[in-house]
Design goal:
four-stranded antiparallel sheet, about 270 residues, five-stranded parallel sheet, single chain, about 35% helix, alpha/beta
Length: about 270
């Protein structure tokens, strides 16, 4: 039976220059591989060691990139190793099979959101009305499924985020603060649901997962084993669960450690 490895990407496997956390002396810094270019500029990296480990993992398990990114944002990433047959984008809203959206899966997601939570337009309107232009840089809607703000983090009032979270929860939505982005995502829109569908299709009996944010908690809980890095929302709040390893590494070295753990667990599987 195949092993399924579902991993979040940003700040879990791949890192922007601002998130690398290269705290060691320059001479001991790891060699980096650029895995994403945007507007002719390098954007995301992993260590060269992590890249080799990920290539080995692709030959050992069913590797499924599992991200909140839109399809367009995901498709500009060039990960090492065999091209994944499956990928999960928009926090589970799109299941890609050989790079193409599974229309039946997406239609099912849309129907569930319409039944179970407040409409996107209501959340959008609330964000536009309540967020202060002093600290908001961009308002964005992703794939007509959820909304997010790009903010100046040092100016962002903590109380506003807490109030938004309460307002959203009462309408069936979740709020997540990741770096300079505040996400408002419908509660039924989950990575775990899409991962379970991939497990069903592939016949996988062991699922491994990793993630750093509140939006990854359901993914980790749905896995047989998982890991979270020493940074991010889950680490900051002390989030823990059985079978989930809380790694001490932060930044790009955490990404390397996560791929190493994936590969070790996949090779040890019966």
């Amino acid at each position: 039976m195949p092993v399924l490895v579902a991993s979040d990407l940003d700040r879990t496997l791949i890192y922007s220059s601002a998130a690398l956390a290269l705290t060691m002396p320059d001479a001991r810094a790891p060699r980096l591989l650029c895995v994403e270019v945007h507007e002719a500029k390098p954007l995301s990296y992993m260590t060269e060691t992590a890249a080799q480990l990920l290539t080995d993992l692709g030959d050992t398990a069913v590797f499924v990139p599992t991200t909140t990114r839109t399809r367009k944002q995901y498709q500009r990433i060039n990960l090492p190793g065999p091209p994944p047959k499956y990928a999960i984008c928009a926090n589970g809203g799109h299941l890609l099979v050989d790079g193409v959206t599974d229309a039946d899966w997406h239609a099912g997601v849309q129907a569930r959101l319409a039944d179970e939570c407040a409409p996107l337009a209501e959340v959008q309107e609330h964000l536009l009305r309540s967020a202060d232009p002093v600290w908001v840089r961009k308002h964005r809607v992703a794939e007509d499924l959820f909304a997010y703000l790009v903010v100046e983090r040092e100016l962002l009032p903590e109380e506003w985020v807490k109030e938004l979270a309460v307002w959203a929860e009462n309408r069936g939505w979740t709020v997540s603060l990741q770096g300079r982005k505040i996400y408002a995502v419908p509660q039924p829109l989950t990575k775990s649901a899409a991962v379970r569908e991939v497990a069903r299709r592939t016949g996988a009996e062991l699922t491994l997962a990793a993630g750093d944010s509140l939006l990854d908690a359901d993914l980790l809980l749905a896995a047989d084993r998982g890991w979270r890095p020493g940074h991010g929302e889950l680490a900051d709040t002390g989030w823990a669960a059985p079978e989930i390893g809380a790694l001490p590494e932060r930044g790009v070295l955490a990404g390397e450690r996560i791929v190493r753990e994936f590969l070790r667990a996949a090779r040890q599987a019966p």
